[in-house]
């Protein structure tokens, strides 16, 4: 192990011993939860974690409970060695890599459900997904006990769900959203982008362009119905299968007819076999 390599921790007593030692030394701790397949977006989260806290812990766990039966759990990209190397470059202090038996031991019977925020957008399309997310993130927060945890705003509904869980359960960590990192052409960085063919990749930035156009029009304060309808038509013509596109209140995620306060334009669409999500602020 080189001086810059993160501690590689895979059992809970070792994780807690490392965090306890940092705490004893008066250091603060940040957590960056991931499912691995790290890209520049994740590295930005790690860099921000290091800016905000003395120590940065990055979890690598492909969480089975947030995947539906027809989703891509089996083929989700996994490369722990590459992830550890990327974490070292970003300055992470520890990699927390629990296995499924550690996270969900025999007899595990608890799930966290969040009402309201999960009623729309991805919620109805991915039954059980946000319950899986809320449960695993709660476990990660209890395991690491960080001062702050960082999440990308690309998964904006997920971010709001996690904030709700932490507030409702009187949990200590601050939850911080970090703006989406994009390619030069606007495509939001995602581990799933590697599923796109070269031809699909050339069309993928249309999603962000459409959302940015809707956000620009929504700022005028008029009805968002026509810009959204036009956006769906544009994406459909470009070969996307749109699951939803909506302008929502940024806090409640309730759809709005016109923008009178902080809002987000959110969308999910398939391009070929790859599901893309994105959002932009209004």
Would you kindly provide a written description of the structure presented here, covering whatever features stand out?
With 282 residues, the chain is α/β, with parallel strands linked by helices. The protein folds into two domains: 172 residues, Rossmann fold (3-Layer(aba) Sandwich); 91 residues, Pantoate--beta-alanine Ligase, Chain: A,domain 2. Helices cover 38% and strands 20% of the residues. The strands form two sheets. The protein has a six-stranded parallel β-sheet, sandwiched between helices. Strands 7-8-9 form a three-stranded antiparallel β-sheet, covered by helices on one side. α2 links the parallel β2 and β3. α6 crosses α7 and α9 packs antiparallel against α10. The chain is globular. The protein starts with 6 loop residues before the first strand and ends with a strand. The model has no long low-confidence stretch (mean pLDDT 96).
Secondary structure blueprint with pairings:
Layout: E1 7-9, H1 12-24, E2 29-34, H2 40-52, E3 55-60, H3 80-90, E4 94-96, H4 100-103, H5 122-125, H6 129-144, E5 148-152, H7 156-168, E6 174-178, H8 198-203, H9 206-218, H10 225-237, E7 240-249, E8 263-271, E9 274-281
Parallel strand pairs: 1-4, 2-3, 2-5, 3-4, 5-6
Antiparallel strand pairs: 7-8, 8-9
Helix pairs in contact: 6-7, 9-10
Mean pLDDT: 96
Uncertain spans: none
**How are helices and strands ordered from N to C?**
EHEHEHEHHHEHEHHHEEE
CATH topology of the largest domain: Rossmann fold
Strand content: 15-25%
User: How would you describe the shape?
Assistant: globular
Termini gap: 46 Å
Strand order of the largest sheet: 1-4-3-2-5-6
* CATH class category label of the largest domain: Alpha Beta
Give the strand tally.
9
Nearest-angstrom radius of gyration? 19 Å
Number of helices: 10
Backbone structural class = alpha/beta
CATH architecture assignment of the largest domain: 3-Layer(aba) Sandwich
Helix share, percent:
25-40%
Main beta sheet: 6 strands, parallel
Q: What's the name of the CATH homologous superfamily of the largest domain? A: HUPs
